[in-house]
Amino acid sequence: xxxxxxxxxxxxxxxxxxxxxxxVEWSTQRSGTPGRLTFRTAGAEALRLAEGAAVRFSVDGxxxxxxxxxxxxxxxxxxxxxxAYDQLRxxxxxxxYIYENKTAAQxxxxxxxxxxxxxxxxxxxxxxxxxxxxxxxxxxxxVENALGLTVQNTGRVYVLYDDAGRLTLKEQGAxxxxxxxxxxxxxxxxxxxxxxxxxxxxxTASRVKLMREDSExxxxxxxxxxxxxxxxxxxxxxxxxxxxxGENGQAKADAMLKLxxxxxxxxxxxxxxxDVRVRGGSLIAVKLDLGGGETVSQRMLVEKxxxxxxxxxxxxxxxxxGGGFIG
Length: 327
Prior knowledge:
The protein is an alpha+beta fold and 327 residues long. Helices cover 15% and strands 51% of the residues.
């Protein structure tokens, strides 16, 4: 495995191949978070690198990350801890948009053009949003809202990510990692360790209570869905929320109970053999014996991927979702 980290000042400044200490870490998440590259380096050249410098990282000649230096932490020992983000960092910007008759894909292209961002493959999402007002909202939320409407109306899920310097939007099914129809496999042989957690402490409800309040009269309607057997076993674990105008209260309460009326199960993979094709939003195959008669053998979604590159070692930690695991 050959890695190369290249840093250059924007506007034709001097290029630099930093002497990396303790390896490079690249992390991505499925949604709402930019890709991040962190590394430590030493030397006067590194300390003079200005914020906004372009950062490129490749593995065996394959581009993995392209972004910009956002944070530099320096100590008396002359070592600098560097953090770079890809273009999705600019999706944390807030703005107000009013748009009509646009698909989510067209929205992504519009935002990229307005903020001077480069695009790559943008899958056409099909569903046309008649009109939408986004007031004082992050670009991330604007896109997530548009993609949410697309899911509701077409059933198709899309992932937005930065592919080594190009904003990319792909349908979830196209994010499978593997060759010839086979998925990349996480198993006892490829993962050094895993963490399997089952808990009632978060994201679990035996009762859902929703309330609607009339803005004019102050009258309140309450809708409740409950599982008496689980209330007896777990106690009352209540999830409460207020309803928006036009929502079907009882239908929503029933749907929420169906979703949250179970122990929360999480599966994190530790130090698996690294594969740079795996990122937040990827689909991979998982086959593990979790002990106590619990096994998993299915395709799963990568909610978060953290790759670590040290000399000739490349490992990845994964947070997985699917099949009852909530990520």
